[in-house]
């Protein structure tokens, strides 16, 4: 982390302190190091994929920055397997159809869409296929975002305070502390301050 921070400083590149850990590599020591270096959020591909963002706890203490679960879908393994087995690479139409299937499934399950790939694979199709899959996802109701914005939203959301209780057999939620750009939504109705 120190080498990366120094490298960015030398290049004069400003960046948000967000970290992506290779699949299965997030651990307590990494969480502590990220927290010490001021990283705001991190993610480990494949870890707690059906969970909401959370602050990890280790040995009874908050350990690390906000952890953003992500279940990334990519075509790299498919393409590598074809290469290893001497088969032709999938066509643009097959790649697009594969992404459409994933988009439909994830939206049906109310899961976020995360598509990524390595340039030597999806890069072959990115200029033609990527705009089409984004257009398709948006046409199905997906909202475009990025990890920095998403993570920063969850940090602000976590700073809101609510009190919930049953009054006369009905749920009453009182907001004790708001963030201006965060709203509580109950059964599709956005609650006002």
Describe the structure.
The protein has 193 residues and is of the alpha/beta class. It is 37% helix and 17% strand. The protein has six helices and nine strands; from the N terminus they run H-E-H-E-E-E-E-H-H-H-H-E-E-E-E. It has helices spanning 2-11, 28-36, 76-84, 92-108, 126-139, 147-158, and strands at residues 18-21, 41-44, 57-58, 61-62, 66-67, 161-167, 170-177, 185-186, 189-190. Strands 1-2-5 form a three-stranded parallel sheet, covered by helices on one side. Strands 3-4 form a two-stranded antiparallel ribbon. Strands 6-7 form a two-stranded antiparallel ribbon. It is globular and about 65 Å long. The N and C termini lie far apart (41 Å). The mean pLDDT is 82.
Annotation keywords:
globular; 193 residues; alpha/beta; 9 strands; 6 helices; two-stranded antiparallel sheet
Describe the secondary structure blueprint for this structure:
Elements: H1 2-11, E1 18-21, H2 28-36, E2 41-44, E3 57-58, E4 61-62, E5 66-67, H3 76-84, H4 92-108, H5 126-139, H6 147-158, E6 161-167, E7 170-177, E8 185-186, E9 189-190
Parallel strand pairs: 1-2, 2-5
Antiparallel strand pairs: 3-4, 6-7, 8-9
Question: Summarize this, please?
Answer:
By secondary structure, the chain is of the alpha/beta class.
CA(first)-CA(last) distance: 41 Å
**Mean pLDDT over all positions:** 82
**Secondary-structure element string:** HEHEEEEHHHHEEEE
Number of strands: 9
SS element count, helices? 6
Q: Residue ranges: pLDDT <50 for 5 or more in a row?
A: none
Principal-axis shape equals: globular
Radius of gyration: 20 Å
Strand order of the largest sheet: 1-2-5
What kind of sheet is the major sheet?
3 strands, parallel
Helix content: 25-40%
Structural class: alpha/beta
Strand content: 15-25%
């Amino acid at each position: 982390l120190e080498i990366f921070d120094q490298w960015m400083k030398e290049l004069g590149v400003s960046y948000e302190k967000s970290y992506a850990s290779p699949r299965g590599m997030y651990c307590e020591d990494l969480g502590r190091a990220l927290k010490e270096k001021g990283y705001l959020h991190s993610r480990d591909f494949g870890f707690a994929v059906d969970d909401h963002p959370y602050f990890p706890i280790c040995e009874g203490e908050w350990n690390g920055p906000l952890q953003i679960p992500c279940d990334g879908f990519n075509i790299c393994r498919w393409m590598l397997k074809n290469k290893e087995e001497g088969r032709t690479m999938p066509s643009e139409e097959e790649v697009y159809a594969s992404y459409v299937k994933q988009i439909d499934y994830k939206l049906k399950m109310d899961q976020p869409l995360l598509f990524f790939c390595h340039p030597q694979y999806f890069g072959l199709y990115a200029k033609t296929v990527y705009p089409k899959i984004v257009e398709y996802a948006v046409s199905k109701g997906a909202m475009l975002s990025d990890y920095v914005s998403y993570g920063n939203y969850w940090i602000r959301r976590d700073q809101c305070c609510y009190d919930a209780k049953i009054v006369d057999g009905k749920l009453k939620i009182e907001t004790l502390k708001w963030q201006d750009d965060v709203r509580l939504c109950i059964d599709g109705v956005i609650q006002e301050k």
